[in-house]
Amino acid sequence: xxxxxxxxxxxxxxxxxxxxxxxxxxxxxxxxxxxxxxxxxxxxxxxxxxxxxxxxxxxxxxxxxxxxxxxxxxxxxxxxxxxxxxxxxxxxxxxxxxxxxxxxxxxxxxxxxxxxxxxxxxxxxxxxxxxxxxxxxxxxxxxxxxxxxxxxxxxxxxxxxxxxxxxxxxxxxxxxxxxxxxxxxxxxxxxxxxxxxxxxxxxxxxxxxxxxxxxxxxxxxxxxxxxxxxxxxxxxxxxxxxxxxxxxxxxxxxxxxxxxxxxxxxxxxxxxxxxxxxxxxxxxxxxxxxxxxxxxxxxxxxxxxxxxxxxxxxxxxxxxxxxxxxxxxxxxxxxxxxxxxxxxxxxxxxxxxxxxxxxxxxxxxxxxxxxxxxxxxxxxxxxxxxxxxxxxxxxxxxxxxxxxxxxxxxxxxxxxxxxxxxxxxxxxxxxxxxxxxxxxxxxxxxx
Amino acid sequence: xxxxxxxxxxxxxxxxxxxxxxxxxxxxxxxxxxxxxxxxxxxxxxxxxxxxxxxxxxxxxxxxxxxxxxxxxxxxxxxxxxxxxxxxxxxxxxxxxxxxxxxxxxxxxxxxxxxxxxxxxxxxxxxxxxxxxxxxxxxxxxxxxxxxxxxxxxxxxxxxxxxxxxxxxxxxxxxxxxxxxxxxxxxxxxxxxxxxxxxxxxxxxxxxxxxxxxxxxxxxxxxxxxxxxxxxxxxxxxxxxxxxxxxxxxxxxxxxxxxxxxxxxxxxxxxxxxxxxxxxxxxxxxxxxxxxxxxxxxxxxxxxxxxxxxxxxxxxxxxxxxxxxxxxxxxxxxxxxxxxx
Lengths: 447, 341
Fold this sequence. Notes:
The complex is a heterodimer.
Chain A: H1 5-54, H2 59-80, H3 87-97, H4 103-108, E1 125-127, H5 129-148, H6 167-182, H7 187-201, H8 211-250, H9 258-274, H10 281-292, H11 300-321, H12 329-351, H13 392-395, H14 425-432, H15 436-446
Helix pairs in contact in A: 1-2, 1-3, 1-5, 6-7, 6-8, 6-11, 7-8, 8-9, 8-11, 9-10
Chain B: H1 12-32, H2 37-48, E1 52-56, H3 63-74, E2 78-82, H4 89-93, E3 94-101, E4 104-111, E5 118-122, H5 129-141, E6 143-146, E7 149-152, E8 158-163, H6 176-181, E9 182-187, H7 193-202, H8 217-228, H9 234-246, E10 255-257, H10 261-277, H11 285-296, E11 301-302, H12 304-308, H13 313-323, E12 335-337
Helix pairs in contact in B: 1-2, 1-3, 2-10, 8-10, 9-10, 10-11, 11-13
């Protein structure tokens, strides 16, 4: 027979066991969540510093903390579940602490009556506040310090953040501007070139120095350069023909076949009209007029005017393609800055195999060979009695002079046997002195 | 305590009666042997578990006296065998003797000293392994076999062996298999000054103490049956299993070979007996902790390095008891545990 009081006693002990189990399980969850929460706080502190530096809104850090906390608590709960304490285990803990000799377990098994409830009750577990609070407060301290630590806000648009465009952009823009100013080429073709250039310019700045963008800029520049070269050559051809025709018109005694001149002018006109940078229509028409007309129909004055126009266009095309001659001072400075900032990496990039440089150069960060070390100041003087047939490469490191050796000079004591001997005469020279390469090596070493 | 549920095979009257009987035995032995209360407690637990006991201690500490007093108090048939190197198996098991009855000669088995309820095997490690093996069969099978005939030993049958930890020259240390047959190995500690004074005042050389009989054989068998009906909760069985398992391959303890499943059975039986001795209807983890050292100390073998470091098996078992929690519950780091034991 089970004592009637056993029911209330059973409820009491089971409730205490449930409370203890919940307490232990909460701490299981807490012990797994705390390290992660501390990590979250540290991460949030770093983000806070970053946000303060960049001047962005810090509202999303709060959202990040909130969402992260939710995620961590959920994950910690899942992880701690397998370590959770059951009510049965909690009963064992209670009966051990209270020295009940497993009476609670036996009662739970239905073998023994439940012991009488106890007023004072201690499960023997207490919170390890140092373990709980130290990391937690540490994390909060990180957050607090992150809000107080002085940071210098990075200003947008400072020189450090502006990426200078590749020099090809400025160069091409100069060419286009020059051609526009000379009013030499059809405007729509120039506009096409300008559009292609603008398309590259409008790409994100951080992509300007990527391999693909550099290749595109380089290709566009090469295309424009080739077109300008063709334009200059064709203008030169046409100008030569017009000049010859003008001389023939001025003097009947001037040599030359009019038909050949007209043929040359016609070919040049066709090329100028169909090139990548086609000449303006009115100029082409003038050339066609000169080509179709006889020497009586176009006066020398008209031919002179045509010549001057062609000459001017030719000069403009040649000047533009020669490089940065017409670049503004500001543009040249920008290009120089870009070279300084990105030059090394860019040069290496272009030198790298498969890069825009054609892939024949050294790989980036490759060690230089000895031949690259010129050390001009330490070169052996060149003296060659017959310089007429000597190239630079042959004369360098070649000396026709003879060593000046004083055979009567005192050479110190000489050892017998296998001890080093200075030698006599010419032998002493090659034994005691260094050849230029050795001298160069030693000079470099002791520099 | 409230009345027990019907599911329990014990009743309060039985427990009360056993408490009275065991109290009488305890008092009787304490009157005969001064200052050895713990030893007497353990010997009683061993008896209630139907186990054999190996007593180890220096000469003159009362080992033999204890066994003799026990035999007198329990009114058991007791025999004493002094083990020597020339002792033969037949000397303890008994021999067939040629007898002539009515002109007919036949071999008649003459029982040896093992045919007693309580056998005191004095200095067991001095006998040859052959004789030790004969004792081994008797302890385990509770029978002896002579000339192909098995002879059952009387019930109850207990072997209380003694061995001397010094003067090991010319001895045959008991092999592990034989040690495992002993439920307990108990070290008999020397007496305190107060105890010695009491002995000097109350004892004389050559005069044995008078021990009145307090229990008969029938009552003892009832107590032995009662001990087997003590409830062993699953949590206690789980604790025993974890404890025995921890003797195998646990880092840092220096154990070479751990305890056998027989050790787990011995722990359970001893825990039941311990509970009965304390008049409880159920065994508890505290009972297991109480009997763990005498049950396990002779069943685990330490490795060479730990023996060189001076480690002992009782110390290792104590470490195990400190490391293995009684409840299979993992404590989170954020909780502090009060010192329970």
